Protein backbone atom coordinates (compact mmCIF):
# COMPACT_ATOMS: atom_id res chain seq x y z
CA UNK A 1 0.00 0.00 0.00
CA UNK A 2 1.20 3.53 -0.78
CA UNK A 3 1.77 5.93 2.10
CA UNK A 4 1.40 9.67 1.39
CA UNK A 5 2.85 12.68 3.17
CA UNK A 6 1.03 15.56 1.47
CA UNK A 7 -1.69 16.20 -1.12
CA UNK A 8 -2.06 18.89 -3.78
CA UNK A 9 -5.08 19.65 -5.98
CA UNK A 10 -5.69 21.35 -9.30
CA UNK A 11 -9.31 21.12 -10.42
CA UNK A 12 -10.30 17.45 -10.54
CA UNK A 13 -6.66 16.27 -10.39
CA UNK A 14 -5.16 15.17 -7.07
CA UNK A 15 -1.41 14.79 -6.50
CA UNK A 16 -0.30 12.74 -3.48
CA UNK A 17 3.37 13.01 -2.50
CA UNK A 18 4.65 9.49 -1.89
CA UNK A 19 6.22 8.73 1.46
CA UNK A 20 6.48 4.98 0.89
CA UNK A 21 5.55 2.78 -2.07
CA UNK A 22 4.75 -0.94 -2.13
CA UNK A 23 7.33 -3.52 -3.22
CA UNK A 24 5.19 -4.64 -6.18
CA UNK A 25 4.99 -1.13 -7.68
CA UNK A 26 6.14 -0.70 -11.27
CA UNK A 27 5.93 2.20 -13.72
CA UNK A 28 3.44 2.48 -16.55
CA UNK A 29 3.22 4.27 -19.92
CA UNK A 30 5.59 7.26 -20.26
CA UNK A 31 3.72 10.39 -21.43
CA UNK A 32 6.39 12.39 -23.24
CA UNK A 33 4.32 15.55 -23.79
CA UNK A 34 3.39 15.83 -20.08
CA UNK A 35 -0.37 16.01 -20.75
CA UNK A 36 -1.96 14.66 -17.58
CA UNK A 37 -5.61 15.01 -18.60
CA UNK A 38 -7.81 17.16 -20.81
CA UNK A 39 -10.48 19.11 -18.97
CA UNK A 40 -14.13 19.51 -19.91
CA UNK A 41 -13.29 22.12 -22.57
CA UNK A 42 -11.33 20.85 -25.55
CA UNK A 43 -7.69 21.90 -25.44
CA UNK A 44 -7.75 22.72 -21.71
CA UNK A 45 -5.07 20.31 -20.53
CA UNK A 46 -3.48 19.79 -17.12
CA UNK A 47 0.13 20.04 -18.29
CA UNK A 48 3.32 18.99 -16.50
CA UNK A 49 6.60 20.80 -17.20
CA UNK A 50 8.56 17.85 -18.67
CA UNK A 51 11.88 19.69 -18.23
CA UNK A 52 11.50 19.22 -14.47
CA UNK A 53 9.39 16.07 -14.19
CA UNK A 54 8.38 12.83 -15.84
CA UNK A 55 4.80 11.55 -16.16
CA UNK A 56 3.61 7.97 -16.48
CA UNK A 57 -0.03 6.87 -16.60
CA UNK A 58 -1.56 3.43 -16.06
CA UNK A 59 -3.89 1.64 -18.49
CA UNK A 60 -3.98 0.78 -22.16
CA UNK A 61 -5.92 3.92 -23.13
CA UNK A 62 -3.83 6.68 -21.59
CA UNK A 63 -6.45 9.39 -22.30
CA UNK A 64 -8.92 7.51 -20.09
CA UNK A 65 -6.39 6.65 -17.38
CA UNK A 66 -7.39 7.84 -13.93
CA UNK A 67 -4.13 7.08 -12.12
CA UNK A 68 -0.50 7.82 -12.81
CA UNK A 69 2.82 8.83 -11.32
CA UNK A 70 4.88 12.01 -11.58
CA UNK A 71 8.58 11.96 -10.75
CA UNK A 72 9.76 15.52 -10.04
CA UNK A 73 13.45 15.34 -10.86
CA UNK A 74 14.46 18.97 -10.21
CA UNK A 75 13.75 21.37 -7.33
CA UNK A 76 10.11 21.57 -8.46
CA UNK A 77 7.87 20.97 -11.47
CA UNK A 78 4.97 23.17 -12.52
CA UNK A 79 1.53 21.89 -13.49
CA UNK A 80 -0.55 24.36 -15.51
CA UNK A 81 -4.14 24.53 -16.72
CA UNK A 82 -5.89 27.50 -18.41
CA UNK A 83 -8.71 27.62 -15.83
CA UNK A 84 -6.69 27.05 -12.66
CA UNK A 85 -3.82 28.65 -10.81
CA UNK A 86 -0.54 26.83 -11.62
CA UNK A 87 0.90 24.63 -8.90
CA UNK A 88 4.51 23.72 -8.21
CA UNK A 89 5.20 20.20 -7.00
CA UNK A 90 8.42 19.97 -4.95
CA UNK A 91 11.02 17.33 -5.85
CA UNK A 92 9.77 13.79 -5.19
CA UNK A 93 7.34 11.22 -6.48
CA UNK A 94 3.57 11.78 -6.72
CA UNK A 95 0.61 9.53 -7.36
CA UNK A 96 -1.84 11.27 -9.71
CA UNK A 97 -5.54 10.50 -9.28
CA UNK A 98 -8.67 11.84 -10.90
CA UNK A 99 -11.42 12.65 -8.39
CA UNK A 100 -14.51 10.46 -8.60
CA UNK A 101 -18.09 11.35 -7.78
CA UNK A 102 -20.94 9.00 -6.90
CA UNK A 103 -23.55 8.75 -9.67
CA UNK A 104 -25.86 6.24 -8.05
CA UNK A 105 -25.84 2.99 -6.17
CA UNK A 106 -22.47 1.27 -6.69
CA UNK A 107 -21.42 3.54 -9.57
CA UNK A 108 -19.14 6.53 -10.04
CA UNK A 109 -17.57 8.69 -12.71
CA UNK A 110 -14.56 10.98 -13.00
CA UNK A 111 -15.22 14.55 -11.91
CA UNK A 112 -15.43 16.95 -14.86
CA UNK A 113 -13.33 20.09 -14.66
Uncertain parts? none
Number of strands: 10
Characterize the largest beta sheet: strand count, sense, and whether it forms a barrel: 8 strands, antiparallel
Order of helices and strands: EEEEEEEEEE
β-strand percent reads over 45%
Task: Please tell me the total number of domains.
Answer: 1
Approximate helicity band: under 10%
Structural class given helices, strands, pairing? mainly beta
The number of helical segments is 0
- Shape type: globular
The radius of gyration is 14 Å
Rounded mean pLDDT is 83
Distance between the termini: 28 Å
Structure description:
The chain has 113 residues and is mainly β. It has one domain. It has no helices and ten strands. The strands form two sheets. Strands 1, 2, 3, 4, 5, 6, 7 and 8 form an eight-stranded antiparallel sheet that branches. Strands 9-10 form a two-stranded antiparallel sheet. The model has no long low-confidence stretch (mean pLDDT 83).
Overview features:
mainly beta; 113 residues; eight-stranded antiparallel beta sheet; two-stranded antiparallel ribbon; single chain; 10 strands
Q: Care to give the gist of this entry?
A:
This protein is an all-beta fold and 113 residues long. It has strands at 3-10, 13-20, 29-30, 35-38, 45-48, 53-57, 67-81, 84-98, 100-104, 107-110.
